[in-house]
Design brief:
This protein is of the alpha/beta class. It has one domain (23-112, 131-196): HAD superfamily/HAD-like (Rossmann fold, 3-Layer(aba) Sandwich). It is built from seven helices and six strands; from the N terminus they run βαβαβαβαβααβα. The protein has a six-stranded parallel beta sheet, sandwiched between helices. 39% of the residues are buried.
Length: 201
């Protein structure tokens, strides 16, 4: 009997991240002008994900529409692991920002490119650009509370907010929804499997 042929899963081309409410600034508080030192701390799993992608040679960039000085302050803990995408003149949900980010990374194809964010307008931009999209339920703008506020909520309240955010993210058309970046690597593995079966974004 012949052994089954194992086909390697398709590799990823690039990963784009939202900044606020994704890599840093749990709950996207900066958009409400609520700036504190805690907001520049990386969210759960963010540094590990960036380090893993770096080891795999997968280029990454972050995008944001906050004032540039605010974005730079938020991103200061990430500068050795990820670059800022150039600012697009056309706001989200136009796809331009995603395309410009990929071009700046030297990526010459959309196939295998992924966007992860907790911001619905940026996710819509990713969909419009033809990317795989992953929504973040608990740490993005839809839950909209800081890390400390999130931890202070009861389990029932957290679950309610998470489920409401998940429904809203799927309503935008995203391909996957996870809680935070701590679940991103398993989500990427799932997307790779879907791609191996011929699914397109």
């Amino acid at each position: 009997m012949l052994a089954p042929v194992t086909v390697p899963l398709p590799a990823f081309t690039a990963v784009l991240f939202g900044l606020s409410g994704c890599l840093v600034d749990f709950g996207a508080q900066a958009s409400k002008k609520l700036i504190t030192g805690d907001q520049s701390q990386a969210t759960a799993g963010a540094l590990q994900v960036l380090q893993s992608l770096s080891r795999q040679g997968i280029p990454c960039a972050w995008l944001d529409e906050l004032p540039e000085t605010v974005s730079e302050s938020l991103a200061r803990s990430l500068t050795s692991l990820i670059v800022a995408a150039p600012r697009a003149s056309t706001p989200w949900p136009a796809p331009n920002a995603c395309w410009q980010a990929l071009m700046a990374l030297g990526v010459n194809q959309l196939d295998g490119s992924v966007l992860v964010s907790g911001e619905p307008k940026l996710l819509q931009a990713g969909l419009n650009a033809g990317l795989w999209t992953v929504g973040l339920a608990s740490c993005g703008s839809l839950c909209g509370v800081s890390q400390a506020q999130w931890q202070a909520l009861s389990n029932a309240e957290r679950e309610y907010r998470r489920s409401q955010a998940t429904l809203q993210l799927y309503a935008t058309g995203v391909h996957s929804v996870i809680d935070d970046l701590g679940e991103f690597e398993s989500c990427l593995a799932d997307i790779a499997l879907r791609r191996s079966k011929g699914e397109k974004p």
